[in-house]
Amino acid sequence: xxxxxxxxxxxxxxxxxxxxxxxxxxxxxxxxxxxxxxxxxxxxxxxxxxxxxxxxxxxxxxxxxxxxxxxxxxxxxxxxxxxxxxxxxxxxxxxxxxxxxxxxxxxxxxxxxxxxxxxxxxxxxxxxxxxxxxxxxxxxxxxxxxxxxxxxxxxxxxxxxxxxxxxxxxxxxxxxxxxxxxxxxxxxxxxxxxxxxxxxxxxxxxxxxxxxxxxxxxxxxxxxxxxxxxxxxxxxxxxxxxxxxxxxxxxxxxxxxxxxxxxxxxxxxxxxxxxxxxxxxxxxxxxxxx
Length: 290
Prior knowledge:
- This protein has helices spanning 13-38, 40-45, 53-65, 69-108, 112-136, 144-163, 192-214, 219-237, 247-274, 279-282.
- The protein is mainly alpha-helical.
């Protein structure tokens, strides 16, 4: 326990095991105390003197010699170095995740140039600041770093869905509808859970885009958004099993997003059937125009 007290255990299974060692030590001390109390009369009646304090300290020194001090100290330094890398990785991940989120916001504002620049900034952050840390300590692959890759995948998928792979689409009023495949991420390879996580999050951005088009009574684009979401959920449901992590939790929001788009498309069909004026036309030119 004296050696373990030098460690900075974080919340987790090691911390729980460390607490178990403390409880075991406390139990042992209680047992020794009870034995010393019950054995006092026996030692006194036999005429033998109890062991001296010096002998107890000598026994403690013998016990300490049983521990591999050098190996344990090396292990402690490795854990401290890993904690330092982990803190550094968490701080640097914020910049990459922020850039990817802002790229998505820029795409919703039709600011394509800024979105492209922010995605490039995110890629630079991953390649130059995050990836070297993960290569040095592969156990840090999951967590903050995985979240950045998932956000990056979402931004790239949404960019390609709107503008295509090469951003050469001249007509930007309607989405191209291209869905990138895992092998299309050549610069930063993704694992299966990173790609599928970004694909699930993409449906949320498509839903927001559909709401934007729905306010303009653009039923065709809303239908295209619905077809995209449905193709994604059909592909995911065709898998024998989903990857671990939070992928399973993202399936229910995906189903709700499809239900909202179906409801929106139904309401747009009712608006068309009743012959109401389109909002965009009412806001243009003569207010009395029918």
